[in-house]
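Batch manifest, entry 17 of 40.
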Amino acid sequence: MHEVVLASGAEVIARHPRSYEREDFVFNPLHYLALIEQKTNALDQAAPLADWKLPEEFATLRRLLEARMGKKGKREFVQVLRLLEAFEIGDVAVKHLVLARIERRPPRLDMTIYPYLPRATVATTSARSYMDLLAGVAA
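Output type: C-alpha cells
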C-alpha cells in the first residue's frame, strides 16, 4: 500500500502518501488551515505549511493584505488559503467571486470591509444624456 487513508465509517477524512522513512512526517497543509485560521500567529511557524509550494502571487497577496489591514490581513490571507480546500488553485484567483459562488449569492463588494480601497461615486445617467451619446452629441 502506497498511501494512508483515514476514514470515519465510509467517509474518507484524509489521504496521505505513505513514507517508510524513519521519523518522517507527511503533511497536507490543507488539513491544518482551519486551526491556523483560529491561531493566525502560528502561520509562520506551522510545520505542515513550511514546505508548501504556492505561486508567488500568494506571497504578494499576503504582503498587501497585512500592509493594508494589519493583523486582520493575516486572517484574511488564511481565509484565501482555505478556499483551496474546495477549489483548484486557479479558481482561487478572485476570492470575492469564489466566495459568492460558494454562498450562492451575487458578488457584492461591502466597502466597509475594505476601508483601504478608494471610494467611487457613480451617478444615475439621465435618459437625455444617453440619447445625446447615441446621437454623437459632445457633452
